[in-house]
Amino acid sequence: MGRRYGQNPYAGYDRVDNPPFLFDGAIDGRLLPKERVVTVTISDVEAAFPFSVLAKEGTINYNQLQRRRYGSAVFFKPGTRSALDSGNIADSNKIGAAGLFEATLEGTKYIFKNEGDKIVDNETGSVWSIQGEAVEGPLAGKKLTPVVHTNSFWFAVAAFKPDTKIYQGK
Q1: Which runs of consecutive H residues, i.e. helices, occur in the chain?
Q2: pTM reported for the whole predicted model
Q3: Whole-angstrom distance, CA of residue 19 vs CA of residue 146
Q4: Phi and psi of 47, rounded to 5°?
Q5: Average pLDDT by consecutive 10-residue portion of the chain (170 residues)?
């Protein structure tokens, strides 16, 4: 039997109201099983940032993650489409994209915020991309150091790291 390579076999998989396909583990009810989360582990701290909270807040400055006095910044940009929602990605829901970075550059700590659809630092007014690069302003061309993280479904994170702390928002 031939495969239909032009068709997405996982269409509808990421609907939060459907149970995870082929997962028979215990469901951690702190979030919906298929809530998308940015997860990070630093030292012995596991943290998850739900996309639903990121979509509301845009950018999160999070000091508890770093081992030193400098914090981290979680960037969120709306618009990226899901590869798991529809047979055609162009028709899929917009779920957004996220990145996690050290909030320091050349020894200076920066605080980030959203201004409309732009990510901006308070200190210089530079505009930053979702990849952590300043694209406008005095810091244009400079790059933040990425922090290793994952973008996952909550059920998978909770299954392997059940002690993960969930960022609840401001």
Answers
A1: 51-57, 154-160
A2: 0.86
A3: 32
A4: -135, 145
A5: 67 74 81 92 87 94 63 90 75 86 93 94 97 98 95 92 91
